[in-house]
# Entry
Amino acid sequence: MATKLEKVPVVVIGMGWAGGIVSAELTKAGINVVGLERGKDRTTADYTMVHDELRYQHRTELMQDLSKETITYRNTMEGKALPMRYYGTFIVGDGVGGAGTHWNGQTYRFLPYDFEIRSKTVERYGEGKIPDWMTLQDWGITYDEMEPYYDKFEKMAGISGEEVPELWGPRKNPYPTGPLVKTPLMKTFEKAAKSLGYKPFVIPAANLSENYTNPDGISRGACQYCAYCENFGCEYGAKGDPAVTVIPVAKQTGKLDLRTHANVLEITSSGGKATGVIYVDMLTGERFEQPADVVVVASYVFNNTRLLLNSNLGTPYNPKTGKGTIGKNYCYQVTGGTTQLFFEDRQFNLYGGAGALGIEIAEWMGDNFDHSDVNFIHGAGIRSTQYGDRPIAVNRVPKGTPNWGAEFKKQSIKYANANFPVKTQGASMPHRENYLDLDPEFKDAWGYPLLRMTYEYTDNDREMVKFMAQKTREIGEKIGADIIETAEEQGNFSVNKDTNTHNTGGVIMGVDRETSALNTYLQMWEVENVFVVGASAFPHNSCFNPTGTLGALSYRAAEGIQQYIKNGGGLLV
# Structure
């Protein structure tokens, strides 16, 4: 039996980027918000002098406890799904800041092509370019409509970057801070790329290149290039993190009731509208019912989808009929086609770095090139990055080196600072049989069904990888490494081996309630007082890290929630 609490105007589930932005915007507008976060509270004080690779990288200090809740996974609809027992591909954040605490900080805008992808693809190539299996659809919003929200997110987070070529969408304002430093590794890539006619640019970063004070008055110091970004919190506060940007702003208003160790189990509803949430105190096991006028679901992609399905909100997607929307268009990201370089007589300081330190070219992104003679749509960026090679996790050695023993040690030492990748990060198009639903067998520690993921790389992915491998190898050969190794084929997906963490879809946006779960304010068509904010809203995944677009949509959702409250209800248009 849950203890029923006093009703509140808004309850926000999850206090990462999406929940933090929504909470900050609503509380600044004078709206009382209850923020529920299943992990603990965190500040920069938690990370002082904790460059502990074993604790954070390998023992996943900042991540969800898989012994209590995980996902199940299978490659095909005919296969049996089994639980993910240890972290590989998916590292779901836990605690205030969520994935916004342990992310690397690469902060892009999606292309104008992305938001109108079906229309623009058909316009240029015809309907036949889109395979029958590809459930591709426009987002219901244009880049020009998104631009002010991108600008707001970038100014809040202090994104460091440089103006990019005409291959990107137009900007009304420059990045608030300049680009990160160009290391010798980046200059090597830059020289080779320019010699081939490309226009390389420094990756836009939430790792501050200089001291910065944002429009909310939050001041943060510059990045120290310590290399402890991905899977770590930033002790300097230099990495954009909800816990050091938007959440303090919400707290300062006095309008945010932040409850930590509060794990939401389900959303309650009656008469076609949500009435609140049921959550469990993770420390005591006590259950509470929190009534609310508006429920904002702002957790990770998997958790957003699972919570709606376990709460019987929205229509579950059926891959056999194509009907329903909750669980539809789950997408990942494609990173095959990398060329790894090894040098006999060149050294780089690879143990220094930052989560978004790198350089990239845009010529093979989106529809920036003619796809008439290739068997795929969209594309990939080609980049070299210098995150910082920490000693336990990173031992790059040429193919054929033993996995352990004296020779492995010898080669690890020899190439420790004499290698770098020319790698890709490609878009992921939706497949009608790549989706999320509830597992019929496995349950979590509280008796609720786990989320089941059905996913495999598509023909579009495999053709893209073959194409991009040629381009990365060309750059590698121009650099002139002694050993050049290219991954020319995309293997099968493995939940415990693939390492990209960019998941999208499951509760997608659009303008047609038959094919989308949300409108462009991320308001549910079927349950008007529920807003589902996060990368779960993306109808496909672009070739970029998703956080910049997630942040922009969060600002738009916050605007919509305020309008919904002001109007006294109703669907927004």
Q: What stands out?
A: The longest strand covers residues 287-297. The longest helix spans residues 459-479.
